[in-house]
Design goal:
Shape: elongated
Largest sheet: 4 strands, antiparallel
Strand order of the largest sheet: 1-4-3-2
Structural class: alpha+beta
Number of strands: 4
Length: 163
Amino acid sequence: MAENGAAEGAEQPQVQMNIIGQFIRDLSFENVMAQKGVGGEVQPDVNVQVALDAKKRSTENQYEVITKLTIESKNKTGGEVLFVLELEYVGIFNIAGVPEDQLHPFLLIECPRMLFPFLRRIVSDISRDGGFPPLNLDNIDFVAIYRNELARRQTEGAGETPN
């Protein structure tokens, strides 16, 4: 029986993930409120959009995972835009032992989850340095984002007509 257990354990490769590097590829913060001279009492309404992408790098087992955030803060009462923050954050990962059929969800769920605390800190610092209270992002459900993207692609694929 121990032999079977050992054989089963050998079939399951050990997943290894290392963050090799992470960096801001693109960052834009526009303080619309200051530019237009909007003043007085404001009640921010924040909209956060998240887009994910991943690609294989030329080095074996290395992948680049990109998280793109677009954050727009509007005044609840008048609807004026207060600020717009766009951030493209990249993580470079060394990943081994993930089965091929599970690699895509791993790259677009687990990798962004590992980078999220750093992203949250950048957004907080930038919004604070831009003259607003620090924006502390709520946790992002990367599983839901992944499932929504798969559903969107299936809907688009079903709606296409052959030529």
